[in-house]
Amino acid sequence: MAHAEAVKDVRPATREEMSQARLPLAYRDSCAHLLIPLNRCRYEEYYLPWKCENERHSYEKCQYEEFKLRVAKMDELRAAKGGARSN
């Protein structure tokens, strides 16, 4: 199963969960369900860089996959406009 499909199978974090976890608004995206346990792990492990590696990798991979989807969407929009940029 591709990661993009796996992300869709996971239940996204609710607004209440994100508020309880005190996530900044900028981080409340489709990967927030992975950031909440990562931040909890970081807090419990005193932010040691060699701890919480699995959680960090999962979160960063989700962010990368989301970025690739945004780039693909932008490429589609540019192709529809004949390659013209919006700025």
From TrEMBL:
<dbReference type="GO" id="GO:0005743">
    <property type="term" value="C:mitochondrial inner membrane"/>
</dbReference>
<keyword id="KW-0830">Ubiquinone</keyword>
<keyword id="KW-0679">Respiratory chain</keyword>
<keyword id="KW-1015">Disulfide bond</keyword>
<dbReference type="Pfam" id="PF05676">
    <property type="entry name" value="NDUF_B7"/>
</dbReference>
<dbReference type="GO" id="GO:0005758">
    <property type="term" value="C:mitochondrial intermembrane space"/>
</dbReference>
<keyword id="KW-0999">Mitochondrion inner membrane</keyword>
<protein>
    <recommendedName>
        <fullName>NADH dehydrogenase [ubiquinone] 1 beta subcomplex subunit 7</fullName>
    </recommendedName>
</protein>
<comment type="function">
    <text>Accessory subunit of the mitochondrial membrane respiratory chain NADH dehydrogenase (Complex I), that is believed not to be involved in catalysis. Complex I functions in the transfer of electrons from NADH to the respiratory chain. The immediate electron acceptor for the enzyme is believed to be ubiquinone.</text>
</comment>
<comment type="similarity">
    <text>Belongs to the complex I NDUFB7 subunit family.</text>
</comment>
<dbReference type="InterPro" id="IPR008698">
    <property type="entry name" value="NDUB7"/>
</dbReference>
<keyword id="KW-0813">Transport</keyword>
<keyword id="KW-0496">Mitochondrion</keyword>
<keyword id="KW-0472">Membrane</keyword>
<keyword id="KW-0249">Electron transport</keyword>
